[in-house]
Fold NADH:ubiquinone reductase (non-electrogenic).
Amino acid sequence: MYGPRRDERDLEILQGADVSSTGETRTDGGRKKVVIVGGGFGGVRAAKALAHADVDVTLVDRTNHHLFQPLLYQVATGILSPGLIAPALRRVVKSQRNTRTLLAEVYDIDLAGKVVKSLGPNEQHIDLPYDYLVVAGGAGHAYFGHDEWAQFAPGMKSIEDARMLRSQILGSYELAEIATDEKERAAYLTFVVVGAGPTGVEITGQLSELAQYVLPKEYRSIDTREARIILLDAAPSVLPPFAPKLQKYTQRRLEKMGVEIRLNTAATDMDAETITVKGPKGVDTITAKTKIWAAGVQASPLAKVLAAATGTETDRAGRLAVDPDCSVPGADGVYAIGDMVSTVDRLPGVAQVAMQQGTYVGKLITNRLKGDETTPAPFKYFDKGSMATIGAREAVADAMGVKVTGWLAYLMWCYVHVMFLIGWGNRFGTLYNWVRSLRYARNRGHRLIDMTGAKAVAEHHEAA
Ligand SMILES: Cc1cc2nc3c(=O)[nH]c(=O)nc-3n(C[C@H](O)[C@H](O)[C@H](O)COP(=O)(O)OP(=O)(O)OC[C@H]3O[C@@H](n4cnc5c(N)ncnc54)[C@H](O)[C@@H]3O)c2cc1C
């Protein structure tokens, strides 16, 4: 139905790379080629929208999975296992016969030759010729000019990040249990989260749940309820993008859960043992072994690659300014979507935007392949609302203007998040873990760390 058998086509695409670099066309097999860089929210939606197009699609990612980032904090706090939120990309596009996936890191894009340059896991150079290119490389962390803070205050962007954070958090409790010095014990039991946006609020809520409800009866030398959990933000409120009513509710609930909230307060320095902050009461140095970064984001370096090649602007967060149809100005057949781009209407860096842009671009390319060269209607974002959890039974939601708090908002959050996971197995697995972890036993089924993980925490602090 789609031309040669899959294994022959795979070979053809790799050979196509060599062919293209010798100057021949990229449509040698008669079918055009679409390359999608990034198998995140935007990339997967673009691939899905091309499922029935008469085209060869290559979905290239430096990981082999599609990561559901909004639930990373639940991996970091032992609620979910990584596999539940990160299905293999091959599985995701398994039944899409015109699509192949490739594990490789894209390092350059030759716009003139229409070739994506990538490096396989064995350092093999793989050139991917394209007729249409969708770049959806996402974003990483921004430490506001202090990249050295990354080693002291890790953030969460990948499964590895979440696993490391889990070792850091649970390792700190293990080290507190055997600490002989009171001050050292207190330092292990102090957790500071920088950034009170949805991610910061959600992980703070779970740190509090761990300390207050999950761990207390399990330790003999320490009272985990004495753990100090601090949430700070330079903004004057928690959850800056949310309505004031929801911000106030969230702050009240977190404070009731024992969280110390410091607003109008920015991190000014940190090392392995401490974090220095400046707020309304002046400068304060807090001794805390665990700092978690949930503040700024920086667009994928691929935005810079495209900006340099086309002379297109990037904003302060490194996001590429794309045209209203998500095309990259001055780059024929190239579209960029998701967290790595900025649009004239300054859309937020959220999954819904990336997904809707992915679908839009996939459809646009399908039309182009059918010979439709008319100017498309600009991309229009449909805002379905936003939500964040506070604790195990608490959330806030703003769904199309309706503001909901508490248990009902929490149920809405559960429904939306579980439905957006890919695969029924993952959905049921996640639901099971939520019922088990959050509702009844308040247990955490995925708290695995070992000596290596805990040692890394200890060594890291000793080195400082
Ligand atoms: C901890 C956290 C919590 C979040 N919570 C929410 C939430 O509750 N609600 C919400 O709407 N949004 C949330 N977001 C934001 C949301 O996840 C992003 O907006 C969304 O993932 C953006 O989609 P994307 O396709 O642009 O990028 P991503 O989903 O990040 O995908 C980018 C993909 O590109 C790949 N890639 C990057 N560079 C290369 C390269 N050079 N070569 C090959 N592959 C590459 C990456 O491996 C990745 O798979 C959260 C984000 C984080 C980090």
Summary: The pocket of flavin-adenine dinucleotide is lined by residues 37-43, 60-63, 67, 69-70, 72, 105-106, 136-138, 156-157, 198-199, 300, 302, 338-339, 349-352, 354 (CB under 6 Å).
